[in-house]
């Protein structure tokens, strides 16, 4: 008898954009406690991450094989030394700004990109997939994730908050200490300082990892705690040969849903509900 899958939406791959969006809607409705909603505006945004291989877990570049044994403080120092050429001379960068820039320019970091736009996630999933390999889009509830894994937090954090400080040493302290890179285990869902227009345009969000190397390894994922809560995480598989993959690969996220992204709406067009 096959082992049950941990992620409910894996069982039926999304073979079209329409099927993908139906799955997104179903996940959102399943995870929303309608009894606590007083209006549609109270509904909290879910986060989405597209990956080119459905078999991959959720691991940031810092914890992948080629960088796992490297010294993060040294990598940060090297990036900041070289990276001053990449930012305006009058631009003030503190540790958080530099760390998000490392992620933006492809340097190894413990940040993992997400977006609040499911179509952006679908676009990047199929764009990065290889022939014959299924892509996937992960869906997470960042509110429940932080509530369960980070004491005292009830939603996404901001850089510089007390709860985020154990995840990133000041660079001088990091160079002087013999301690490990971070002082927390499980990732924290964090809103970015919008240091780059691309992050803003893609409605980017991040999980910042601690010492755990795969977010899916948390024992709280899709398992209820003593208080009845669980870390909500799901995965939608997008077959490489499906219509959704072909359609999304040839078009930008704006073209996938033109009415939402267009700046002007025809006078006769109905205004979207809500």
Short description:
The chain is of the alpha+beta class. The chain has a domain at 8-32 and 44-59 and 110-169 and 184-260. The chain is 30% helix and 11% strand.
Give an overview of the whole structure.
The chain is α+β, with helices and mostly antiparallel strands and 274 residues long. It has a domain at 8-32 and 44-59 and 110-169 and 184-260. Helix content is 30%, strand content 11%. The chain has a three-stranded antiparallel β-sheet with strand order 1-3-6. It has a three-stranded antiparallel β-sheet with strand order 2-5-4. Helix 4 packs across helix 8. The radius of gyration is 20 Å and the shape is globular.
Keywords:
three-stranded antiparallel beta sheet, 274 residues, single chain, alpha+beta, 6 strands, 11% strand, disordered C terminus
Number of helices: 10
Total DSSP E strands: 6
Biggest sheet: strands side by side, in what order?
1-3-6
Mean pLDDT: 80
Order of helices and strands: HEHHEHEHHEHEEHHH
Shape: globular
In terms of topology, how is this protein built?
Blueprint: H1 17-31, E1 47-51, H2 72-83, H3 95-104, E2 111-115, H4 118-127, E3 135-140, H5 142-149, H6 171-176, E4 188-190, H7 197-201, E5 204-208, E6 233-238, H8 243-250, H9 253-256, H10 258-261
Helix pairs in contact: 1-8, 4-8
């Amino acid at each position: 008898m096959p082992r049950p899958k941990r992620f409910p939406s894996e069982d039926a791959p999304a073979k079209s954009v329409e099927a993908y969006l139906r799955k997104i809607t179903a996940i959102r409705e399943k995870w929303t406690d309608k009894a606590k909603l007083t209006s549609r505006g109270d509904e909290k945004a879910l986060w989405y991450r597209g990956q080119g291989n459905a078999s991959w877990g959720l691991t940031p570049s810092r914890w992948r094989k080629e960088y796992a044994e490297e010294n993060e403080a040294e990598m940060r120092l090297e990036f900041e030394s070289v990276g001053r050429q990449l930012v305006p001379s009058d631009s003030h960068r503190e540790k958080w700004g530099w760390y998000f820039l490392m992620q933006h320019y492809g340097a190894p970091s413990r940040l993992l990109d997400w977006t609040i736009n499911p179509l952006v996630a679908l676009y990047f999933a199929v764009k990065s997939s290889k022939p014959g390999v299924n892509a996937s889009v992960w869906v997470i509830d960042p509110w429940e994730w932080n509530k369960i894994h980070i004491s005292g937090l009830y939603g996404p954090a901001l850089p510089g908050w007390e709860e985020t400080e154990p995840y990133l040493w000041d660079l001088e302290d990091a160079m002087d200490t013999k301690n490990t890179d971070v002082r927390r285990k499980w990732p924290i869902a964090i809103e970015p300082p919008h240091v780059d227009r691309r992050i803003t345009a893609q409605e980017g969000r991040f999980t910042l990892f601690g010492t755990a190397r795969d977010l899916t390894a948390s024992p709280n994922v899709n398992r209820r705690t003593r208080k009845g809560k669980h870390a909500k995480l799901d995965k939608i598989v997008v077959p490489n040969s499906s219509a959704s993959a072909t359609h999304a690969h040839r078009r930008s996220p704006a073209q996938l849903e033109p009415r939402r992204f267009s700046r002007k709406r025809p006078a006769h067009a109905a205004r979207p509900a809500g």
